[in-house]
Amino acid sequence: MPASHTIATLDQLQQLFGPVGQASLRKETSFVPPEYRRWIEVSPFAVLATSGARGLDASPRGDPAGFVVVEDERTLLLPERRGNNRIDSLRNILTDPRVALLFLIPGVGETLRVNGRASISTDPELLDRLAVDGKRPQCVLRISVDAVFFQCARAMQRSRLWSDATERPAGVPTAGEMLQALTAGGIDGQRYDVELPARQRATLY
């Protein structure tokens, strides 16, 4: 590949993509506000990303909706269920506590992203609290939140991942509702949601 075609500096990268939209900047928080909490409580599935001495890992996590507990606005609890005992993610956390979570909800185009730092707990009270059908998790990840924000629906629209889904689950806030709350009304949520489908169609590719 010719060197002239390789992006090697931040300046080149920013020139390629242009400025970040205000909504994309203002949707990020350093804690879990009520709108994002509702999102996490309805999600039955997440991808956990970690990094460590042996490399990177991204692995699925799933349970009945709300399996990741919002302990408070800066703490999440993620139960670690029985698996194949590779413990790739847990090995990584022991050497590098930084983690990222990507939450999905069937039928919803947006996803929710959380960046934070995790520790591994075997506190009996936590294990009992997060048991399912009387079976305790092996351990619990206690995640201190650094950043939370939602991702737009374009990837889901391009992939048609939820093309067979019927409707958005009740109680899951829309992109506009989240932005209006996070900006204290600075962004008109209703208008944002009305204009969003056309904007996404126009910018899908």
* Beta-strand segment tally: 7
Largest sheet: 7 strands, antiparallel
Calculate Rg over CA atoms. 19 Å
Structural class: alpha+beta
Tertiary shape? globular
Q: Could you name the CATH class? A: Mainly Beta
* Cα separation of the termini: 24 Å
Strand content: 25-35%
Helix content: 25-40%
Mean pLDDT reading: 92
- This entry's quaternary arrangement is single chain
CATH architecture classification name: Roll
- Per CATH, what is the topology? Pnp Oxidase, Chain A
Strand order of the largest sheet: 2-1-5-6-7-4-3
How many helices? The count is 8
CATH superfamily: Electron Transport, Fmn-binding Protein, Chain A
How would you characterize the overall build of this protein?
- It is a single chain.
- The protein has helices spanning 10-17, 22-26, 34-42, 88-95, 124-129, 154-159, 175-182, 189-202; strands at residues 45-52, 55-62, 69-72, 75-80, 98-104, 111-121, 139-151.
- The chain has 205 residues and is α+β, with helices and mostly antiparallel strands.
- It has a single domain, classed as Pnp Oxidase, Chain A, CATH 2.30.110.10.
- The protein has a seven-stranded antiparallel sheet with strand order 2-1-5-6-7-4-3, with helices on one face.
- A hairpin with a 6-residue loop joins strand 5 and strand 6 (111-121).
- It is globular.
Brief summary:
The chain is α+β, with helices and mostly antiparallel strands and 205 residues long.
Explain the layout of strands and helices.
Layout: H1 10-17, H2 22-26, H3 34-42, E1 45-52, E2 55-62, E3 69-72, E4 75-80, H4 88-95, E5 98-104, E6 111-121, H5 124-129, E7 139-151, H6 154-159, H7 175-182, H8 189-202
Antiparallel strand pairs: 1-2, 1-5, 3-4, 4-7, 5-6, 6-7
